Amino acid sequence: MAMTRRSASHLLSAFRPFSLLLQPHLVDSSPAAASARRAMSSASALRARDEKDVARWRESMGRMRNIGISAHIDSGKTTLTERVLYYTGRIHEIHEVRGRDGVGAKMDSMDLEREKGITIQSAATYCTWKDYQINIIDTPGHVDFTIEVERALRVLDGAILVLCSVGGVQSQSITVDRQMRRYEIPRVAFINKLDRMGADPWKVLNQARSKLRHHNAAVQVPIGLEEEFEGLVDLVEMKAYKFEGSSGQNVTASDVPLNMEDLVTEKRRELIEVVSEVDDQLAEAFLNDEPITANQLKAAIRRATVARKFIPVYMGSAFKNKGVQPLLDGVLDYLPCPLEVYNYALDQNKSEEKVLLAGTPAEPLVALAFKLEEGRFGQLTYLRIYDGVIRKGDFIYNVNTGKKIKVPRLVRMHSNEMEDIQEAYAGQIVAVFGVDCASGDTFTDGTVKYTMTSMNVPEPVMSLAVSPISKDSGGQFSKALNRFQKEDPTFRVGLDAESGQTIISGMGELHLDIYVERIKREYKVDAKVGKPRVNFRETITQRAEFDYLHKKQSGGQGTLSLYLQVLMVNSNLIT
Question: How far is 221 from 77, CA to CA, in rounded Å?
Answer without folding.
Answer: 21
